[in-house]
Design brief:
332 residues, alpha/beta, Inosine-uridine Nucleoside N-ribohydrolase, Chain A, eight-stranded mixed β-sheet, two-stranded antiparallel ribbon, 12 strands, binds calcium ion
Length: 332
């Protein structure tokens, strides 16, 4: 057991890759390395109600159903020209497998909004909470707008988002999480001084394969987590291949998992310290993330941006932790 588990709020829009990150985090929490303070669902891959229900179900699957889930703020500046990602992740965000999971025990209508939870937790324990943001940054921006300065009360904010040298995935230049709400992203990047960013540059290398799912489920094929991992992988591989995301390899990209790799296995990543800007005006480049690649003295920097990854070892440790989650029999 670790002496000081990292206190985490997971801001998420499940999402196939969110689901894998979600299970990985629950394994790390079960091992004593992480403490899940709250989950703040966000409108993104699918509608806020679906990401709320998906989050509740994933917590129940992993045995953490007592953790509060927030409902995502709607009404950011979500681009009319960026649709949700139901075509990739399934209409429910989870490979149309949501009905196979236990019923959500928390009510969407009765839930607190995600920005309220962020504000309350950050203010009550300043400097202690790490926000892992693996969806659009709408909730974080809403919290900052309501309570200026609140995001800088986080110990760290780790974001999956952006594309720097790599091309985009929702438009030729932009990555989904940023492009879905560029104004929110701009507010977060303009406000925060110590962001950690996992862009497509590294996440496009994280190809999770059916063989990996088989390795995990072999630990206990009858367990609900094993069955979910296998079925979700199968669904995600189908859409990833259709969208040609993996260079023809049978697999899908577990983008969101990179955030946890940074926190728990940082040796798998290399970073550049940089000032990151968000393009909100461009006709063709709205939602693009930029950093100055010229060799000048850096006058300012707001982020550590991961640009290299040891994908093989990152995926290997993730697989081992997911095996432990099943082995430990913490499912309910
Ligand atoms: Ca996500």
């Amino acid at each position: 057991m670790a002496n000081h588990p990292i206190k985490i709020i997971l801001d998420t829009d499940p999402g196939g890759d969110d689901s894998f990150a979600f299970l990985w985090l629950q394994s790390l929490a079960k091992q004593g390395f992480a403490e899940i303070v709250a989950v703040t669902a966000v409108d993104g891959n699918v509608h806020a109600k679906d990401t709320f229900v998906g989050s509740c179900k994933l917590l129940q699957l992993g045995g953490f159903s007592d953790i509060e889930v927030g409902r995502g703020v709607i009404g950011g500046s979500n681009s009319e020209d960026v649709e949700d990602a139901g075509a990739i992740h399934g209409a429910d965000g989870m490979g149309n497998l949501s009905h196979t999971l236990p019923e959500a025990q928390q009510s969407y209508e009765a839930a607190r909004f995600s920005d309220e939870i962020l504000i309350e937790k950050l203010q009550s324990t300043p400097g202690e909470i790490t926000i892992v943001a693996i969806g659009p940054l709408t909730n974080l921006a809403a919290a900052e707008q309501k309570s200026p300065g609140v995001l800088n009360l986080a110990k760290e904010i780790v974001i999956m988002g952006g594309a720097f040298l790599h091309y985009g995935n929702i438009t030729p230049e932009a990555e989904f999480n940023i492009a879905y709400d560029p104004e929110a992203a701009k507010l977060v990047f303009d406000t925060c001084k110590h962001l950690v960013v996992m862009p497509l540059d590294v996440t496009h290398q994280l190809i999770f394969t059916p063989e990996m799912a088989a390795q995990i489920s072999a630990v206990n094929p009858a367990s609900p987590i094993a069955q979910f991992v296998t079925a979700l992988c199968q669904f995600m591989v189908g859409t990833a291949m259709a969208y040609r995301e993996t260079g023809g390899q049978a697999g899908f990209l577990v983008h969101d998992a990179a955030t946890l790799a940074y926190l728990f296995y940082p040796e798998t990543l290399r970073f550049r310290h940089a000032q990151v800007e968000i393009e909100t005006q461009g006709i063709w480049t709205r939602g693009k993330t930029l950093l100055d690649r010229r060799h000048g003295v850096q006058s300012s920097a707001n982020a550590w941006v991961a640009l290299e990854v040891d994908a093989r070892n990152l995926l290997a440790v993730m697989i081992e932790d997911l095996k432990l989650l099943i082995q430990n029999g913490i499912e309910r």
